[in-house]
Amino acid sequence: MKIGLVLLPVLSSAQQINTDSLRKIFFSSSDDSVRYQAALRIYDFYEELNRDTAFFYGDQSVLISRRNNKKINEAYSLSRKAYQEVNLGNYAGALHSLLTAFSICEEKDNEKYYWSIDPLRAESRKRLYALSCTHHIFGILMRETKNLEQQVIHFREAKRIAVEINTPARSLLGSLNLGRIYIELGKFDSALIHENEAEKIARNSNRTKYLSGIYYYKGIIYKSKGDTSQALAFFYESIRSGIEQNNLDGLARAYNELARYYLAAKNKDSSFYYATQTLEKLKKLGVVGVFDLSLGAAYENLYNAYLLRDQKDSANAYLKLAYRGNDSINQTRIKSLADFQKLTLNEQQRLQNVERERKRIGQWRVIASLGLLIIVFLLIMFFQWKNSKQKKRANLLLKQQKEKVETTLSELRSTQTQLIQQEKMASLGELTAGIAHEIQNPLNFVNNFSEVNEELLKELKSEAEKGNLEEVKAIATDIAFNSEKINHHGKRADSIVKGMLQHSRTSSGQKEPTDINALADEYLRLAYHGLRAKDKSFNAKTKTDFDDRIGKIKVVPQDIGRVILNLINNAFYAVNEKQKNVSSASALNGYEPTVIVNTKKEKDRIEITVTDNGNGIPEKVLEKIFQPFFTTKPTGHGTGLGLSLSYDIVKAHGGELKVETKEGEGSQFIIELPNRL
Asked: What CATH number does the domain located at 512-674 have?
């Protein structure tokens, strides 16, 4: 309590924030709730001031809330982290953060797990507040990935929730971004209505942080309508508010527009000043190229400004920087959009359909081979019965047929081994497909900043020879800034590579200490969001009850992960099939598809259970479910190898795989593993 009271003056005002004090609190406090609040306040300060710093503290707030099981805080922090990921061009990372936040906010049971993050008192309203934030950032992500329809839907939903729970800050941002959409659509009167509404909310609620952005977009509206004097007035007002509120994003945008205006007016002094200010603010903000503003555009403005001043050497230097910057931005955007599209799973769905069809054909070939073997055996038995006098000849024939059968069975075993290996590789491909692309983004930064430094070093030498010390100092500052970025993104690439190697390696069969609770939780989320990506109508309630006493046990994590993933996928399939029949069965109108994953520690073993409330397994097929190639799914929806392979993996670990089921009510699969470390 004493620590909390001491911190109240520091954490109470975002307008007069002392970042040094907050950093000291963040790194020294032993109270995670205090560290969480400090991280949020530092994030607020740097949100529109420095993207890398804001991302760091946004990520830290996610980790702290997750460690303390504060679900609503985690979802809220994930939306903030995702905002910076969008700004930094990491669309795939932003999508992953937002999907996780949605999964938390959609679960009403999570409402009781929170620290206070806003003045709302009701637990349900805190969840809705986090949900509004998540919809808002998802709208921003949709804007960057050129999905107009989705961005309108999510911005409107974010504002609807904000109005419902009476949160002015969220309503303000909803109006601001809806106004921006109408600007893009060329509906300037509608855009102005929304921006005026945003300004009114900002003033009435004292949310002045966003006035710089509001004035900027009002300037764009009047510029588009041909009212230059009004446009300039709002751009200057945006700069005034940006300086007052320390909002570099709004400042950079307004400076950029004024640089363009004075370039068109051939005013060499003003154009040079505003172009220089644009570049300075973007570098400080840490943005290379997002939204409609980039370093490439800033370099191009300086190139044109130097031409007006008849300084051709400097102009040519910035022209080269503009070419490189724009090329880098285009490549990064193309790559980021490509990575984002991969996560939509359209291409993966197509490949999976092709793979299912191939497996279906292979399955029928195996069945045909088995049928042929049965016919051969029946013919042998028939000829033995009909002509006992030819016993010797029949025995010889039987021997020959036996040899053929053994050859065929050997081929079947080989085919089965290939199918199992292909299934393992498909699972491996799903886990690693989205990782490698992450490496290219930091490498692009390293390459681009290295090339820029090379050019700047040449310019430094030239200016040193001329004795122009002021220019030498300016260039040296740029080189130092770029070197810091090279170091930062180099480390970023290194961590991504290590993570990729850890997640994408194939099973070596070596057991290692593994956190079973974390493994089960990870694969539950993977299975749920994988099915949601393939079928937007799919929905199911998930519950977990993990025994914290388990700790780590020695298993092959890739293999046990495949078993858990297979059982959870089967459970989701079962409840989804039952859900499809709800409309035609009035008795099931209250049915809620539910999948539960539990862990429990016994004396010498641990149990992992996957429970569903689907249709259950008919008693007549229960004894067959662990047999290879047996499946109750329609043709093309299963190979019949999942449970068989899972059974073999659990047996290889010295454990047991059991099933308890009641037809019409659901099933429970139980994995028992020895408790060894």
From this structure: 3.30.565.10
